[in-house]
Amino acid sequence: MEQRPERSDGPASEKDPARGKDAVPGLRVSDQERDAALDVLAAALAEGRLDPHEHAERAEAALAARTAGELAALTADLPVPPPGRAEAAREQRAKGYAEWRHWLGGLVVLSAIWGVNCLHEGELAFYWPVTPLGIWAAALVARAIRPDRRKGDGAG
Hints:
Layout: E1 14-16, E2 21-23, H1 31-47, H2 52-64, H3 68-75, H4 85-121, H5 130-145
Antiparallel strand pairs: 1-2
Helix pairs in contact: 1-2, 1-3, 4-5
């Protein structure tokens, strides 16, 4: 009976740029992980980091790789290419949604403070949280309309 490798994040694991996470060297890889390694190799060829002969050898080895350790060895000396436009846009949307979640948290907290104050006074007072929440929302809308482009693809 074949023994399965231990799944630990201890010293046996190594960083694999093709997988983007900790890889257990003895763990078998999928076709998707092989394709990611081939993408790293193709980017290195396009940048001139590999010559065509070495790229062909590594690509052939990547297609034949069975474990994460074999795949990691092929890309260990190469930088990970920057994320594509789709991935960068997805990350930007996720950050925008997180900012709106913080705004909603602020809405809940400020409304609770206003509500407790109204209960304490015994009458409904002016809803003062509208001012800070409105300014905060305006800043979020302005950022959504004109995002900060200093980071990323160099525009701006």
